[in-house]
Amino acid sequence: MDYDILEPIPQGSDRAQEAENSRIAAIADELGRLCRVHETQSGNGKADVIAFETEQRAAEQLAKAKGFWIPMMDVFRLGVPGPSGHENDTYVAKHVIYKVNNLLNSGSIAALFQKVLLHNVIFPDTAYAFFGFAGFDGRTVQPVFYQPRVANAQPASQVMIDTYMAALGFESTSETGRFTNGEFDVWDILPRNVLVDTEGDVFVVDAEIRKII
Q: Are the C-beta atoms of 48 and 133 separated by less than 8 Å?
C-alpha cells in the first residue's frame, strides 16, 4: 500500500478528481484489509453486529495511524452547523460543506465509500472528497466527507431535476425522484437533495445510488 495516496488531494480539475477517487478507493481497500485482519485474530466475522464493530475499530485504527482521526468534540470546528438530514450532519465552511455521516442509510463504511465513488462518477460537479473519521475513542466512528459549496442556491423543482437527469442519459421511473440508465439506479433525487444556482445550473448534492449487476 502506498500511503502517500492517503494525503488530501486538492480539487479543481478532472485529474485531481481522479486522484481523489483513487485515494478514496485506496482507503476503502486498506480498511477492508484491516477488517480481515481483525476477523482472523478474533475468529469472528459472521454476525452482522460483529462485522459492524470490526469495521468501526478498523476505521479508528487506520485513522489514528494515518492522521485523519477527528475527535468528535472537534467536529464543530469544521464550520457553521448546517441542516441535518437522516444520514448527515453538515458543517458549512467558506468554500465547502462537510458531511458527518452516521451510516443509517448505508449501513457500513464500505457501502458508503462505494456510494461516494459512484456519486463522483455520475455527479462530478458535486464530487465528494474524504476528510477523515470522527468519533469517540472505542465507540461509534462516522466518516467525514466534503463537497464544494454551491453559493446562492435554492432547492430545484422536480421538473428541473427530471430535465437535468434526462440530459445525463437517465430515464424516469414510476417513482418520483428515481432514475435509471441501465447501468445505475439512482433515487432520492428530490428537491431537498438538489440545488439550482442563480444561473440555472443544477447540482445533485445527495443521492442514493446502486450499480446494476
A: no
